[in-house]
Amino acid sequence: DVCSSDLYPYQSKRRNVLNNDYNKEQNDKNDDNKNNGNKGKNRNVMVLLVISVILTLLCWRAYDKITNGTKKEIPYSGFVEMLDSGEVDNAEIYAKKIKFTSKESDGTLDKNTYVTVRISDDKLADRLKTAHEKYATTYKGKDESGSAMVGTILSYVVMIAAFYLFLSLVTRRSGMMGFGKSNAKVYMEKKTGVTFADVAGEDEAKESLTKMVDFLHNPKKYMAIGAKLPKGALLVGPPGTGKTLLAKAVAGEANVPFFSMSGSSFVEMYVGVGASRVRDLFKQASEMAPCIIFIDEIDAIGQSRDSVRGGDSEREQTLNQLLAEMDGFDTSKGIVILAATNRPETLDKALLRPGRFDRRVIVEKPDLQGRIDTLKVHSRNVKMDETVDLRELALATAGAVGADLANIINEAALTAVRSGRSMVSQADLIGAVELVFAGKEKKGKLLGDQEKKVVAYHEVGHALLVALQKHTEPVQRITIVPRTMGSLGYVWQVPEEEKYMETKAELEANIVTTLGGRAAEELKFESVTTGAANDIEQVTKTVRAMITMYGMSDKFGLMQLETVQGKYLDRNAVLQCSDKTAAKVDEEIRNQLKKAYDEAKKLLSEHMNALDAIAQYLIEKESITGQEFMEIFNRVENAEQNVEQE
Ligand code: ADP
Ligand code: ZN
Questions:
Q1: Which strand (E) or helix (H) includes residue 481?
Q2: In sequence order, what are the beta bridge partners of 575?
């Protein structure tokens, strides 16, 4: 219908604006980056260009002079006239032109040289002869090819030189042909301006890095006592937890320059480029020592050499060069190399040997206090009104990393500006959390009435089971507005406090809650939809983990049946039992899921009135708060109790 097709383009435009706003900082950074790395180079290019243009012009001028001199061109008729009247002093006859000097009619010499285009003139020889006899005009024939050759060759030389200059400029810029020459995108900051105060939480990481700072301040103190100085440390942690920020803070605290380069930008198409970039980076850095070299995503080059199938010689060369540089540089200069990765287990052992990245600094996802601090750091310059409660926000963002939190504050500020307010409110912040984790609301009529109804019952099914069971976290919001990241609706729960473990009872209650969506659909509509796919995936994982890893199954007891490999990004479980046991585990998972699903259906079927009432309200409002939800729930429940009592 018209409405939605009108709204969609508008919305996508808004999203772009929003993204641009957020990315602005990033872009600026990139620009800085380029400028820093290429400023010198750009100047060189300009100088070369100007010189080549001037040279070319000079050459053309010189060529011009040689071939034409300061000659006056006159028509042939003029020449004949001058010849006949005795004004020609000395003539050189070429095949296609005639060059001559003149004298005044009174016989004194005139400095001018003339040239005229020779036309076929039968009487020329006679005229010259007469002039010679009458006025002592001298004349001789000349072979044209000599001087013409010089001119032609010269013009070729100039052209080739200009072309070569042009080509060398172009290729240097694009890096297409400069094999030997590296154009590494080194990002250098003389002063990062970041201090440890800008990094919230991460106290353990800061503590171990403080030692580096002291070393950079005063390397001689350490040398004097004979201490071996640290060369490098590996910052290990998930993306967005502030590894780059910490490295910058080390540079900022030590007041030394900060060189940074991403591991992936070392490795390029051509073999040898990466290695030359590594050399270049270290050369630049050692000129500025003491300093910090930061290599982001070091796993891009440092991947274990055995694990790369078929051998990747470019990566290997780059890695070898890095190892060589690390071994080669003199620690007394005060260069510290920090590298970041989120998969330390994939790194080549050679990188981790003593004298290289032998120290590890773990950068974890922030806990509750860490999140509160991060929110505080990022809201330092943001005007916020009295409704704002950063603790509540931190509770609602369990699992978020620093980058997410920074993003949330910024999105909230943008929302406030867009709605014409001068301060950020808690509602803005909550909205920003949803925006960051679930995507933007899709405006317009996306779902049909029936679909909307199904989604509403599904979500209220989850929420009701939260309210009906102990051991679950209170509901913050229920919404059935589809989001750009793909959800059609969700129930948002916020814990009252941060949890580091979960009890068996909590896990079981969660499983029942998660199955509540599908249960509500089945109870109300007697048919089910695809909408529960995520729920099913999640509960299956939980039940499996309870059985195979947490020792929470009566049937299998404390036996570990699975191990998890990969701590950060791709956690994958590997079975540690026989096929027979595995089949039994599957069987047990099926049983447990069925039990939980039956429980969900039983609980919901006892509260169908509440389900209907809340779902109806949700369909009208599309988004409701936990409070509204509880009010309706209590009203319906009380009414039912009264009916029973009468
Ligand atoms: P990583 O290098 O670990 O992927 P970054 O250091 O690039 O993460 O973090 C991205 C952004 O997230 C930082 O610029 C900063 O704004 C924010 N951030 C991340 N962690 C923190 C933190 N602990 N304290 C403050 N800001 C943080
Ligand atoms: Zn669901």
A1: none
A2: 562
